[in-house]
Amino acid sequence: MSKNYQIRIEGHLGSQWADWFDGFSVTLETDGKTLLSGPVPDQPALYGLLRKVRDLGMPLVSVNQVYSIKGENIMDTKVNTYRTTAKVVGALYILGFVVGIAGSVLSTPGQLETVSARSMMIAIGALLWVLAAAGDAAHGVMMFPILKQTNERVALGYLSARLVEAAVIAVSALFILLQIPLGAEFLKASASEIPYLQSLSALFIQSQAYTYQIGMVALGMAGLTLCYGFYRAKLVPQLFVIWGFIGYVSFLLGSMLEVLGFNLQLLHTLPGGLWEMSIGVWLIVKGFNSTAFVSESAKNKAN
Description:
By secondary structure, this protein is of the alpha+beta class. The chain has two domains: 74 residues, Alpha-Beta Plaits; 211 residues. A hairpin with a 2-residue loop joins strand 4 and strand 5. Helix 5 packs antiparallel against helix 6.
């Protein structure tokens, strides 16, 4: 039994191509897109139709099945919904990267005697870390329904790892904030109390470093889970999958070495950090692979 589909592509399709999509109506929309509407007899025919669109070299915007319930036409808007999700996730990647760097710069306590003079900047830096942690948790929440389509365990694993990472980074921010009351006490302390306060400050600094690296270990595990989900679902180009695996293995192993006492000067974060910026831009501009959702939807309906 044929099912009706609407396929929207970027750009106006010339009239000479109408016969290539025999049985489909071609509508040139005012926003510069072309809408192809018509019946598709089965899943192989749908794949063949999408290959024709690919061969045109015109970007695919959306693929929607139109079906009838109680006489009303209802459009399957799954692809469009996930297009919005891709933009939000991409924006979170970029914002998280920028906020994380700003938080690192502002929250560095320095010498204990200078903390009180910089208390406002240190507090802002710590709050930026909390915002970055909230963004990490949001990543897991927003990607859950997308990854769940292919493998629910992968979706749960990614969500769990992101929540753990967010919680640990929030604790790391707390150790930063504890420097502020210590700095205030340092200015009032007697000579005999100064060594104790300096030791306590050093302890908090080291605790903050450990919790941050543990958070990065959780990030590495989350990132590897996400890349596996991308690979299974073919949501992004395979180049990003390979790059992501390399970046997050570097995150994971490098952060473990940092906990063990090796000072890598954050070099292990470069491949993963550049990947997050690049995938963020890609998701905003291109979104997820639309045909992956079409294929999954067709499989579910066939079952």
